[in-house]
Amino acid sequence: MKFFAVLALCIVGAIAHPLTSDEAALVKSSWAQVKHNEVDILYTVFKAYPDIQARFPQFAGKDLDTIKTSGQFATHATRIVSFLSELIALSGSESNLSAIYGLISKMGTDHKNRGITQTQFNKFRTALVSYISSNVAWGDNVAAAWTHALDNVYTAVFQIVTA
After folding, report:
1. How far apart are the C-alpha atoms of 155 and 28, rounded to whole Å?
2. Quick check: 26 and 142 in contact, CB under 8 A?
3. CATH of domain 21-162
4. What is the residue extent of each domain of the chain?
5. Would you give the distance in Å from CA 55 to the centre of its chain?
6. pTM as predicted
7. For residue 129, how many C-alpha atoms fall within 13 Å in the half-sphere facing its CB?
8. Beta-carbon neighbour count of residue 144 at 10 Å?
9. Residues 6 or more apart in contact with residue 48 via CB below 8 angstroms
10. Which residues are annotated as a binding site?
11. pLDDT tens, 89-134?
């Protein structure tokens, strides 16, 4: 029990530097421009990193261009993007930190149980940022806001994945 209390404190500490309202606004406005492209986002991740696709039993070993048009692919892409949308919607308000922690904690635990590594999380991040930056107005301010947001999330997730 003590372990979980310490882990919770570490995770809360990792997100103790929440986004400013300006950073949150930049992340939210850029995300709003792409969040309805769920299939394209997941396709971009799988195309860039086939080893991530291989981690999904329902997609492993299948032709990406073929599965991209399937309902199963669209459903899973929507799950991933909806999770990100929920985190982003909560960002920018310190009063939402416990809700953000709860979401990150569950996602981290679920992915730890599936054997997902820090390397795979980082690959996902790279592909996600590549997709967003290629599809929205992307300046240094937007890049910095996304870096801050993802650093917060990934620091917390890595504390869970490596625990």
Report:
1. 20
2. yes
3. 1.10.490.10
4. 21-162
5. 16
6. 0.88
7. 17
8. 12
9. 123, 126, 127, 130
10. 76, 111
11. 998 888 888 898 899 999 989 988 898 889 999 999 999 999 999 9
